[in-house]
Design goal:
The protein has 280 residues and is an alpha+beta fold. Helix content is 43%, strand content 12%.
């Protein structure tokens, strides 16, 4: 279990990067049950900035929480979700896409790689990165490099690991990700949230369930209120996945995975109910 934000300088934070327009992300993000700022993060990318209540108030490890959220969002949408996270001991990422098993990598606080090289190659393939140039850049992040693991003039815990995350983001600029100023890996959730809320065009996610006309969202065909065959099939798949996931999360007392399972069950039930109403 990762150390939580219990001492000055031990900032804990995360970012959820979705390869979709903010309108599409806003349509489903409210199902997480955790209101958070939503901003644009490059061409066809959006960023959700968690405010950290699950790990501050509930004692949940940040990596477990955001991995559950990323998996839930990715299963319920036709776009991948990349979760970046960090605490006093480690930093890393998790990429979730559809029903496939999430892939991730971890670095220790001083930047020491603690993951599998194959994870980076799978990560690159799922995001459609260049199989030669981008993969070579990513593989450098899996090797011991004293210069990369040390930031001159700083002794902040986790600086090396967070430098690795910045290196990861540098590669991802070629995939269209551009984080606005102030959203830097290594900052605490409070600072990240304040920086995100101050950005032009920022919005705050809220409850899902209102009709598209009320919200002005341009919703994709997979949303439950379309009532189409694809939406109904997805709704059933979400319920089938969400029920065991919720039970597993409750047994492990994991708020993140419980929320992910509940999101899938709720989203699937909404889609199924609306599909039935359209047929009657």
């Amino acid at each position: 279990m990762s150390t939580q934000e219990s001492a000055p300088g031990h900032a804990v934070g995360a970012l959820l990067l979705c390869r979709a327009e903010p309108d599409s992300v806003a349509a489903v993000a409210g199902l997480l049950g955790e209101p958070m700022p939503l901003i644009r993060a490059g061409a066809q990318w959006s960023a959700l900035v968690p405010e950290g209540r699950p790990w501050r108030d509930g004692g949940e490890p940040v990596d477990r929480v955001v991995t559950g959220w990323a998996a839930a969002l990715a299963v319920g949408a036709p776009w991948p979700v990349l979760a970046l996270w960090w605490d006093a001991d480690r930093a890393g990422y998790t990429l979730a896409s559809g029903f496939r098993r999430p892939v991730g990598y971890v670095w220790l606080a001083n930047g020491t790689p603690a993951g599998e090289d194959e994870a980076m190659r799978t990560f690159a393939a799922r995001l459609g990165l260049d199989p030669v140039l981008d993969v070579q850049s990513l593989e450098r992040l899996t090797r011991a490099d004293p210069d990369a693991d040390r930031e001159p003039g700083t002794v902040r815990p986790g600086a090396g690991a967070r430098a690795r995350l910045r290196g990861l983001l540098a590669v991802l600029t070629r995939a269209g990700i551009t984080l606005p100023a102030g959203l830097d890996p290594g900052e605490g959730a409070d600072r990240l949230g304040a920086a995100a809320r101050a950005l032009p065009g920022a919005r705050r996610t809220g409850p899902v369930g209102r009709r598209p006309a009320a919200d002005g969202y341009r919703l994709a065909a997979w949303m439950p209120w379309t009532g189409g065959p694809g939406a109904r099939a997805l709704a059933l798949a979400q319920m089938a996945t969400g029920l065991p996931l919720t039970v597993w999360g409750l047994r492990r007392r994991s708020g993140g995975w419980t929320a992910a399972g509940a999101l899938l069950v709720g989203h699937g039930a909404l889609g199924a109910a609306y599909g039935l109403s359209r047929r009657t």
